[in-house]
Amino acid sequence: MDILKLNSISPAADEILKSRFNVTDKSDNPIGIIVRSYNMHDFPFGRDLLCIARAGAGVNNIPIERCTKSGVVVFNTPGANANAVKELVICCLLLASRKIIPAIEWTKSLKGKGSEVPALVEKGKSCFVGPEIYGKKLGVIGIGAIGALVANAAAALGMDVLGYDPYISVESAWGLSRNVKRITDINELYSLSDYISIHVPCNSSTKGQINRDSISKMKDGVVIINCSRGELVETQDIIDAVKSGKVARYVTDFPNDDLLGVENVICIPHLGASTPEAEDNCAIAAAMELADYIENGNINNSVNFPTCTMARSGVSRIAIIHLNIKDMINKITSKISAQNHNISNFVNKSQREYAYSMIDIDDVADEKLKKEIESIEGVIRVRIIK
Fold this sequence. Notes:
This protein has three domains: 1-81 and 274-305, 3-Layer(aba) Sandwich (Rossmann fold); 82-267, NAD(P)-binding Rossmann-like Domain (Rossmann fold, 3-Layer(aba) Sandwich); 306-386, Alpha-Beta Plaits (2-Layer Sandwich). Helices cover 33% and strands 21% of the residues. It has helices at residues 11-17, 64-70, 82-98, 100-108, 117-124, 145-156, 170-175, 186-192, 212-216, 235-244, 276-296, 328-338, 367-374, and strands at residues 2-5, 22-24, 32-35, 51-54, 73-75, 137-141, 160-164, 181-182, 195-198, 222-226, 247-252, 265-267, 316-323, 343-351, 354-361, 379-385. The strands form three sheets. Strands 8-7-6-9-10-11-12 form a seven-stranded parallel sheet, with helices on both faces. Helix 7 (170-175) links the parallel strand 7 and strand 8.
């Protein structure tokens, strides 16, 4: 069974996968794919492809809808690179406040001045004065794995942190510092914050969230940091706001041609997760998700199917991806009972219009049973795992 690597992935993934699968960078029909930034939207799927794991959080490079309709489970690794991104955001706060980059560039221009350099430094440094972040208000939009770490770190540095996330998970809420104030109205966060850092996925409801209208509700001289996705911020609107002084600085980890060279726009070349620790963590998490799904049918951290796990029991496991429609479970179990199989364990989870079921039986499931279940209207994919 082939696991196809479409990008250079940390060797940490190989340590998990190579004892179980053939890990390769060339395969026409892999059972699983592990990917980072490779654009898969026109990538052909082989008949045996079961799953794709993105070694990172964003999945914009993967055709999610096509995968879902084909019964291909897509995983990501939320939180695996969270600390790396958090550290970059803290760096961005300081870079945006203290004019550190232009100061360094100016200092380089003094090369060759010899003994005059110390005096020139003292004379010129006043051009690069910037405020401290201590005591300032930071608004964090999105309190997920990364946003929560950013909020906690900023609070530890003495910032007054406001957090907005209408969908905050119990896990994130438990891990949040008591010094982070929860805001339920994003417009309130806009109006109060000296700095804003955005940490939400890019989708139809968040694309262009930072735009002319939202910026108009912010403080004059606000600093905006975007280490999540470039599309969350409308490029021309942020350029206009920076040029007018409404936004003091815009720091982004997602440059584009229009942003480059604009005064008070700091462009970083997508370094958020570019640490050896983050690359190892993402690779390990992606490899474990692939292996567990292929070998046991368990789904963790999928972006297109529900989380669904069950300890192995019985002799055979039947894993079924299907539509979330009325009477589906009864139809599936009836097919199993009709062939005199005893069900020893069962789990079913749904996510909007799709669902996933795992059924352990006490004897060997054969190809005939598989075909019987596949014949049920609304069933997308059936696997027998022994």
